[in-house]
Every structure is written in C-alpha cells, then in structure tokens.
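Format notes (please read before filing issues)

Several people have asked whether sequences and structure tokens are stored in separate files. They are not. Every record keeps both together, in the order shown below: the sequence lines, then the token lines. Line labels are part of the format and must not be stripped during preprocessing.
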Amino acid sequence: MVRNYTSDPVDPAVVARIVDAARRAPSAGFSQGQRFIVVTDQDVRSAIADAAGEPDYVANGFDPWISSAPVHIVVCVRENDYHERYREPDKLVDGSEIEWPVPYWWVDAGASLMLVLVAAADEGLGAGFVGFHALPSIKSVLGIPDDVTPIGVVTIGHPAPDRRSGSLTRGRKPRTETIYRDHWGRSF
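Then the structure lines:
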C-alpha cells in the first residue's frame, strides 16, 4: 500500500487497462454487480480526501496521499444485481431465489478491488486503499445512487517515498497459524 505519490500524471490508457482488469473479476452467477467510478478531477479528489479526514492524517505527520493521488478508483457494488440474477429461471431452486449463505456481492467487490491493486502494480504504479468506513459522505460527494454501496477508494499514482504506517511493524502471522493441510490445525 502506497501512501504518497509524485505529481506525475497517470496515462489515461493505463487507467483504462486497470479498470478493464477489474471488470473481469468473477461474480456469482455472472451477476456483474461491481461498479467503478474513476476520479481524476482535482476538486473531486480533494473532496474525497476531506471526507476521509485527510487533514487530521496530515496533522499527525503523514503525507496528503489521498488528495495527491492523480487517480482514484471508487469500487462499488449493487446488491440488487445479485437478487435479480438469482430470480432468473436458470438460478431458481425449487422456484425461488437461493438463501444467500454468504453475501457474495461483497466477495465479488473484494475480487474487483484486488484486481485494481494488482493491475496498478503490474503497470508500475503505486496504489493505496481507503475503506468506506472512513468515507461517510462519499455517496453524496460522487452522486452514488441509494441502491449502490461504495466499498472504498483505491488511490493510484507514481509512488513517492512515504512514512510507513505503524501497522507494518506487526509482521505477518506465522504460516502455522494461517495455512493448514487437509484439516484445520494440521501443519502445511
């Protein structure tokens, strides 16, 4: 995750490739509920940064990484696309929409988000993520309809040196706590 960017612009063709990659993410039943807003306008990026509390972040000695990123990709999901798809004849179970054991629209939005991050890295760019929890007014800033839920914002640009978050001092959990073979608790 990058938290500082140079002022160099990002080629629009590169941005298009990144978003096209995200559009290829899987979706349950090919519901395609993922939506993306590409933001390059400085005033809108500044409004997003303000909504995310960037001034407080900067006051704590960090770089203004949200407003300085030349591109924001807002990842959203429309849950109703899933319900509509699973009410179609080929998806009905005993004549009804399935009981959703997992809200797969969140899973699919996460897959799209990951593809944005990976595609940005593949293009030689840096990227960072701001979760929706930090953006309470983002829907009104961007005019997002009520039936669409923003997941968060991926900031994209050419990376600059930055002050690393304290979270990075934690390190990764050991493999023995996170990867198992054949059954839970068996070492991989």
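For reference, the curators noted about this record: The CA atoms of residues 69 and 144 lie 21 Å apart. The two ends are 28 Å apart (CA to CA).
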